[in-house]
Each structure stands twice: as structure tokens, then as C-alpha cells.
Design brief:
Elements lengths: L31 E2 L6 E2 L7 E5 L10 H5 L5 E5 L7 E5 L7 E5 L2 E2 L20 E8 L3 H4 L6 E7 L6 E11 L3 E11 L3 E12 L14 E13 L4 E16 L8 E18 L2 E15 L7 E17 L3 E16 L2 E19 L2 E12 L3 E15 L2 E12 L3 H5 L10 E14 L3 E19 L11 E23 L2 E14 L2 E2 L6 E10 L4 E11 L16 E11 L4 E8 L18 E9 L1
Parallel strand pairs: 6-9
Antiparallel strand pairs: 1-2, 3-8, 4-5, 6-7, 8-9, 10-11, 10-32, 11-12, 12-13, 13-14, 14-15, 15-16, 16-17, 17-18, 18-19, 19-20, 20-21, 21-22, 22-23, 23-24, 24-25, 25-26, 26-27, 26-28, 28-29, 29-30, 30-31, 31-32
């Protein structure tokens, strides 16, 4: 089942141990999470993070974005089916304001027009945990973290010795997927490897065409760590993802094809000296996208990051975190090139002035080689007047540096300056024993100096428009509600609702739902048979100005159903149906979305 948790913000330590979980009984309890620059217990955090773990992902959806779509405050748009470009919105703000990390590696595309991550090709293969952090978090993550952060952790063994898991799935559009993960764990060492493969005939991305657009992808991840001594640990994380996608070049040419390969690596060393924990890390990310018959045939980008993070335990139940970071980015696209360097320093103080109150204050300064320095901060607090009640508040500032493409491409303007944001949220969480929980969060974010493509701008001299700073302030505000209720020991109902009003100078942002409602139920029919049903209603979406006249962007309702059967204690078979009533809708004008689809699969632990 989909569980919703309020956690604190920020940089998740990529190798923090997590326990394996059952699909319907997982509860964070006292598990320590990276809710800050150092791990923080669940009940001592300030900001809102939604958490998906284990079986929340496995067998639940064809792509990860479908599962994220069901979280409060999260929505998405896609230019077609699996593999096509898809972006995630957090609290009404588009993907360029969301940082995506996998095992501590920043995966946002340095060669992209606005540095966003393409969720369209991200499948659940080997993914163990996802945290969705909301609000302006530049004080912890730097540029682009205006809307939030998606932090992903892949499979790692949790039992001593050799163990693993395997899954295989077949479904509509001749979609075939298989994943194999295995690892080895000792008292001092940990190794894990995942291989995933997905192939689908797909369907036509363009609404005015009927030729299928197929997709093929291979995913591999490797993680390892070794305790050289009790005080000194070294580790590594490596990822590789490559794929091929058929596309419709235009309304009269459906013969296009693109390919991509992205590679990431991170090496780190952890050292304990007295009361201070030190982490030294170097990470690298590279992406190569090819479009042989496109206007621009190749996009290349890379990112190199060297960082240090210290965490000191102080007197009076206080922790001081402090760090330094040096990042280099470059891109090459259609003959346009560009690069930049950013030096960063940050600090965070965690304190508990009284037993039922926790506070945190973070400050960061980023010095960019092109536009100079930018300071950001964040204050967070949680007050627990009683064990089953918590009030939370967060105030943060953020910024997004103009991407290399926005500055140095054929349509770029080197004079662009960073966008700046301020965000605020208030939340309350109440539990009623083990039977029910209710959560509510009010949020507000505003952004100045918005960067968008302007067809009338002449600053770049392209003759076709340029990227430009948009006058006025962009505002996104709303409320998130979520609840769960156990009708009896076998059956639980859950739901969430998000109201979002996002606009620039009074004009609503496109592709952002004003209303987003999810209702669901899951039940244990028998000790081995489980069933789920959920309904998602999205209402009042403004289409892009580029949407064709016959677009289907607006309001839609999707129904999903699934059943799973425990064949043995370690093996399970499942079936699910997506878009049960075959709703005809679009999230991006002129691009198809999946109709009624059915999938059958098996998964097993060993």
C-alpha cells in the first residue's frame, strides 16, 4: 500500500541502512532517516517528505512516475508512453525546480534546456526507497531545489550472507520487464548489484498518429562499502542506464528514433574522529542523448562534484553540520558549449531546547563562476504537545541558476540571472492509535525573475526568440490533506487531496492541476490473497499555449485495481489493471496517454 509520512527535509545519506518491509505493515517507527544534513529520527523533523519503500513500488506501476503521481502535492505530465519525456511537478512547480538524486548522485540533466530529470524512462527496477522532499531546499541542496528533492536509494542486502530478489512482468502493448538484484553482506562489508531490462511496443505518442512508438532500456546499479576499521569506512555507488525510443518526428513523419545513455558514480570515505563524523565524497554524472534526424542531433552534459560534510555532536543535545562543495558542469549541444564552476559552503544547527520541541537552522552560500554569490537559508521546527500530535513549520529560501542551455545555446542569453524563491509551510499530524492518521499541510512558494522561452525576445539574436526573465512574481499556494483508517484488521482505506493555485502575475501556470484527489482501499481477502483499488481524480488543468485545438487536457478520472497472491513465504504473483475504465485524456496537449492496460508478474526473494 501507499503510505504517507511526514519527515524532515533534505539531503538523504545514500547508504543509511534501511530494513526490508512487508507491503502492508511497514511503519517508520524509530528508524533514523536523513531528514537533514545528518540523520534525524522521524518524530524530530520539520518539513514534509513523502516516503515510498519496497513493495510500495514493486509490482505497483509500470513506471515510477505513476506511483509518485498518487502522492499529495505531486503531479506529472508526459509526452507519450513509457520512455517518452515526462516531468514531475511538486506543489505546482515544474521539474526544473526539483533535484533528483540516486544513491547520492545528482541525476538532473546538465545538457537539458532547463536541467530537469526525465521520469518517463524511470522504472522501479532495483529501487528500494524514494523520498519526496517539498519546499525550497537550496540551503541544503543548492541550485534547482526550489520545489523540492527526489532522493532514490537502490537495492541493498539486509541479511548476512548472500541474498537477492527477482521479478518478471508481462502486460499490455507487449511490455516485458525483468529485474534481478543480489547482494552479499558481512559484519564489515556490503555489496549489491541490480540488472533491469524493459521492452515495450508502446503506442503512438502523438494523438494524430497510430503507429506504435517502442521503447527498450537497460538499467544497472552497483553499490558497496567496507569498514576498514571501526572508525574508517569506504564505499562506492555506480549506475548506468541506456535506452532507445521510437518517436514521431512530426504530424507527417513518424519515423524518428532517439537514444540515450547516462552514467553516474560516487566514491566516499567516512571517518570518525572523537565526536565529529567526516564524509569525503567525489561524484560524477554524464549523459549522452542522440537524435540522428533531429534539428540538434546530440546533447552531452557532465557534472563533477567534490564534497566534504562534517557532523559534530555538541553539548545540550545539539548537532552542528558543516560542509564544503565544489561542482563543475559542462554541456555540448548542436555546436553550442558552456561550462561553469560553483563553490559552496553550508552549515546547519540541530537543537532541542525542550523535550517536545526540535529546531533546525541551515545556511548555505554558493559562489558561481558566472553570476557570483547567492545565500539561502532554512528554518524548521516541530512541536509535539503529546505523543500522537505534532505541529510542524518550515521557512526557506531557494534559487535556480539559469541552465547552461538557457545561457549558452542558440536560444540562450548569457546575461540571465538566477531565479529566487521563498517558501513557507505549516503542518499538523494526528494519529489515533494504530487505526487512523490525519495530516494537513498549508504551503506557499513564490519565485522572482522566472526564466522562460520568449518568442519575442531578441537578446540571443536567433531570430526565433530566446530564453528571458519574465517580469512579475510566480506564486504557488495550496493545501495537502491525507488520511488512513483501518476499518478492521484486514481492511484499510486511504486517501489524499491537494488544492494548488499556481500563477504568474495572476495568470495560472499551465499543466498544473488545481484539484487532485486520491481514494483507495486495500484488503487481505485471505492470509495469502490481497486486493487493492484506487481512484484518482484530477480537475481544472490549464493546457499549454502550444496545445492543439482538439487537445484533451483538463479533467480526468483514473481507476486502478490489483490483486496479489503469496505463492510461498518468499514468492508472490500479482495482476494489476491501470485506467480500468479506459479514460481518454492528455496531460500534455496533443500527446497520448495509456488506455486500459493489464499486467501480470511474479517476484521472489532468495
Amino acid at each position: 500500500m501507499l503510505r504517507f509520512h511526514l519527515l524532515a527535509t533534505a539531503a538523504v545519506l545514500p547508504f543509511l541502512p534501511t530494513a526490508s518491509l512487508a507491503q502492508e505493515t511497514f511503519d517508520l517507527g524509530e528508524v533514523v532517516l536523513s531528514g537533514s544534513l545528518s540523520p534525524v529520527a522521524e518524530d524530530r523533523t520539520g518539513a514534509t517528505v513523502e516516503v515510498l519503500e519496497g513493495d510500495d513500488l514493486a509490482g505497483s506501476d509500470t513506471s515510477v512516475i505513476q506511483r509518485l503521481d498518487r502522492l499529495p502535492g505531486v503531479s506529472s505530465t508526459a509526452n507519450g508512453g513509457l520512455g517518452a519525456n515526462a516531468t514531475l511537478q511538486v506543489r505546482g512547480l515544474p521539474g526544473r525546480y526539483v533535484v533528483v538524486r540516486v544513491n547520492g548522485i545528482d541525476m538532473n540533466d546538465p545538457s537539458g534546456t532547463q536541467n530537469s530529470f526525465n521520469f518517463g524512462s524511470l522504472t522501479p527496477a532495483g529501487i528500494d526507497r524514494i523520498e519526496v522532499l517539498k519546499g525550497s531546499q537550496s540551503a541544503l541542496y543548492g541550485s534547482e531545489a526550489i520545489g523540492g528533492v527526489i532522493d532514490i536509494t537502490t537495492y541493498r542486502p539486509t541479511e548476512l550472507g548472500f541474498s537477492g530478489r527477482a521479478s518478471s512482468e508481462y502486460g499490455s502493448d507487449n511490455t516485458r520487464a525483468a529485474t534481478l538484484s543480489f547482494g552479499y553482506l558481512t559484519e564489515r562489508a556490503e555489496l549489491a548489484y541490480t540488472y533491469g531490462r524493459v521492452l515495450t511496443d508502446g503506442f503512438s505518442a502523438r494523438a494524430d498518429d497510430n503507429e506504435d512508438d517502442g521503447f527498450r532500456q537497460t538499467t544497472q546499479t552497483f553499490t558497496g562499502r567496507y569498514d576498514l576499521t571501526e572508525e574508517f569506512t569506504v564505499g562506492v555507488a555506480v549506475s548506468n542506464r541506456s535506452g532507445d525510443l521510437e518517436i514521431d518526428r512530426s504530424s507527417t513523419n513518424n519515423s524518428g528514433a532517439t537514444s540515450f545513455e547516462e552514467r553516474g558514480a560516487r566514491v566516499f570515505a567516512e571517518l570518525q574522529t572523537g565526536t565529529i563524523a567526516h564524509t569525503f565524497a567525489y561524484s560524477y554524472f554524464d549523459i549522452d542523448r542522440r537524435d540522428p534526424t533531429g534539428f540538434t542531433t546530440r546533447f552531452e552534459g557532465d557534472r563533477k562534484r567534490l564534497s566534504y560534510l562534517g557532523s559534530a555532536a555538541l553539548a545540550g543535545d545539539m548537532t552542528l553540520n558543516f560542509g564544503l562543495d565544489r561542482t563543475e558542469e559542462s554541456f555540448n549541444s548542436g555546436g553550442s558549449t558552456g561550462d561553469e564552476r560553483t563553490l559552496s559552503a553550508q552549515a546547519e544547527l540541530l537543537m532541542a531546547p525542550i523535550n517536545n520541541v526540535d529546531l533546525s537552522a541551515a545556511l548555505r552560500y554558493d559562489d558561481n563562476s558566472d553570476f557570483g554569490g547567492k545565500a539561502t537559508g532554512r528554518l524548521a521546527a516541530v512541536w509535539r504537545p503529546q505523543d500522537d500530535l505534532a505541529f510542524r513549520a518550515v521557512l526557506g529560501t531557494g534559487f535556480r541558476a539559469p541552465s547552461l542551455y538557457e545561457r549558452f545555446s542558440f536560444y540562450g542569453d548569457p546575461a540571465l540571472q538566477p531565479e529566487e524563491s521563498r517558501s513557507f509551510e505549516l503542518g499538523v499530524e494526528k494519529t489515533y492509535g494504530d487505526n487512523a492518521s490525519v495530516k494537513a499541510t498549508v504551503f506557499y512558494t513564490e519565485i522572482d525573475d522566472l526564466i522562460q522561452y520568449d518568442g519575442a525576445s531578441t537578446a540571443c539574436g536567433s531570430g526565433f526568440g530566446c530564453y528571458n526573465q519574465v517580469p512579475g512574481t510566480t506564486k504557488s499556494r495550496g493545501v495537502e490533506l491525507s488520511a488512513t483508517y483501518a476499518i478492521n484488521p484486514r481492511t484499510e482505506v486511504f486517501g489524499n487531496y491537494t488544492y494548488t493555485h499556481a500563477s504568474t502575475s495572476g495568470e495560472r501556470l499551465t499543466r498544473t492541476p488545481k484539484h487532485d484527489l486520491l481514494l483507495g482501499v486495500e484488503t487481505n481477502v485471505t492470509d495469502r490473497l490481497q486486493a487493492t483499488l484506487d481512484i484518482r481524480h484530477v480537475g481544472d488543468v490549464v493546457p499549454s499555449i502550444y496545445a492543439p485545438a482538439d487537445h484533451k487536457v483538463g479533467t480526468y478520472t483514473l481507476v486502478g485495481a490489483g490483486m496479489s497472491y503469496d505463492v510461498t513465504d518468499t514468492a508472490q504473483a500479482y495482476v494489476r489493471i491501470e485506467n480500468l475504465f479506459d479514460e481518454d485524456y492528455e496531460t500534455a496537449g496533443g500527446y497520448n496517454t495509456p488506455g486500459r492496460s493489464a499486467f501480470f508478474g511474479v517476484r521472489a526473494d532468495f
